[in-house]
Design brief:
Layout: H1 6-16, H2 44-47, H3 51-60, E1 64-71, H4 76-79, H5 84-88, E2 94-97, E3 100-104, H6 107-113, E4 119-126, H7 130-144, H8 149-159, H9 161-174
Parallel strand pairs: 1-4
Antiparallel strand pairs: 2-3, 3-4
The chain binds zinc ion (ZN).
């Protein structure tokens, strides 16, 4: 999405688009930006580097939106820190498996460009980790074939019950639901 993250994420996204989803339409932006790093928590991200994301969302109105990010192993503790909410204003990421983390997307895009019943998630994959990339590919394939938020929640509750519980709790308390 930003900085050099595309090095670990673009190929996954390109592979994902080689076969269409069972239902619906898949749109992929394999590289948003190659260079400057602006955090997606910075409101300027979506109006500058990430403006093509907003253009795509506003014209396609997806009911599912996934961001793929990558992180260095050294930042794992920071991303999954229970205190992240107090430090950055957004909930901590939750590790699913093999260094793949599940989180929400920036409130700016969530609130301004999506219906509340849309599924908006963010995956962080660990840089230079084959295991992480491999599992992320499987996960993206699952999401690709989900037609609603409930479909994905059902998958998560089945395969990762503890993480599902935490993710739903975080989401509800963050948006005051
Ligand atoms: Zn990122």
């Amino acid at each position: 999405m930003h900085g050099d993250e595309w090095r670990d994420t673009s190929e996954l996204l390109l592979n994902l688009s080689t076969t269409p989803p069972e239902n619906g339409t898949l749109a992929v932006i394999p590289i948003v930006d190659n260079g400057e790093y602006v955090s997606t928590l910075d409101k300027r991200y979506y109006t500058t580097l990430g403006s093509r994301i907003i253009d795509a969302v506003d014209s396609l109105h997806p009911n599912t939106y996934v961001e793929l990010h990558s992180y260095s192993a050294a930042n794992l503790a920071k991303l999954t820190d229970d205190n992240r909410i107090n430090k950055t204003g957004v909930p901590a990421y939750i590790e699913l498996k093999d260094g793949v983390l599940l989180g929400s997307v920036a409130p700016y895009i969530r609130l301004k460009h999506f219906q509340m019943d849309a599924l908006c998630i963010s995956f962080e994959i660990q840089k230079n980790s084959e295991r992480s990339i491999h599992f992320a590919a499987k996960l993206l394939d699952v999401v690709k074939n989900c037609v609603s938020r409930d479909d994905f929640i059902e998958y998560l509750e089945d395969k990762f019950p503890l993480q599902a519980k935490k993710a739903i709790e975080n989401y509800k308390s963050f948006y005051g639901l």
